[in-house]
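Lab channel / #folding
Pinned by the channel admin:
"Please post every new chain as: sequence first, then the structure tokens as a reply. Keep commentary short and put observations after the output so the thread stays searchable."

First post following the new format, from NK:
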Amino acid sequence: MNKYLVFVFLFLFQSESKSQSLFPKLDSITITAINGTYPNIDAVVISQYDEIIFQSYFNKFTKDSLHDTRSAFKSITGILIGIAIDKGYIKSAKEKVYKFFPDYKKPIHWDKRKDSLTIEHLLEMRSGFDCEEWNGTKDCESEMGNTNDWIKFCLDMELKSSPGSEWNYTSINTMILGGIIAKASHMTVSAFADKYFFKPLGITQYIWTKDPLGHELTSGNFYMLPADMIKIGKVVMNNGLYKWKRIVSDKWIKQITKRITEINGFSNVRISKNKTAAPQPTYYGYTWYNEAVKTDKFNYNIVFASGNGGQYIMLVKELGLVVAFTGNSYNSAKSKLPFDIMIKYVLPAFTVN
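Reply from TO:
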């Protein structure tokens, strides 16, 4: 069998979509992934108006393979907090954090600034904890993983600045959010999520990472199917609804996807090295991101969840699009290549010139 026939076989085997008849430009995603242009992409799944129209899998992954979502799961934790508020377990995002942990033993040298720490500060990455993963200056998550009680480790973390004063990205924040959900609901986070979120969405296959005491990691290392990532995106796309059933309030969805904090000097499009789009700043809301994609042919805002290695749930509301990416470009600028794919192949396929 010659190389051309092998290529065609791989193309047909790995790509399951309607794109060959309806959106031929999407087939280029599979072609470029196989030919090495995007070697670190594990899956691409595209849905428009609630129907999956394209899915392609690489590097021995299939549609039935669970994939680590890494920090994209932080955005799911943000939705779970909204559900807990809707259900009355939490009054609002303005509630103080440490009130949810009455059995927590404060250290002798307690930092009184922690008394002002709110759920909102955690959601916005403005807790003030002395951790910073964005620039890799102090990765507290690795240190946390070496302890038995991850919640206590996070609550004990020293402050670098007063809560609310600075934006510093850290997994500590979303880990505490998971602890709050568990304390407020009197359920494990996994039981809460299963009852109020995953089961209503028909999500049944996943793997939680837990600490030795059984606390679920709510900042990452959650394994799920890329097609189920699409379901998460649909909830956000439809302002809290899934198949016309209310999952979380539209008010909460609007809040978590707001452009609250501009991440200084950062642009996913710029890092992706795409040459046709003018780089725009990335914004952070309540665990979800925003970034505009502007070319001479289109201008769209992408709302997205993001995880190390190239894990994304992207929404383009004007086009009714939800796109899920998984990848293995860990700790690499190549993790931003999905933005290049969006600009070159996905968005043009749905843009009327």
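NK: Residues 1-14 have pLDDT under 50 and may be disordered.
TO: also worth noting, The longest helix spans residues 72-86.
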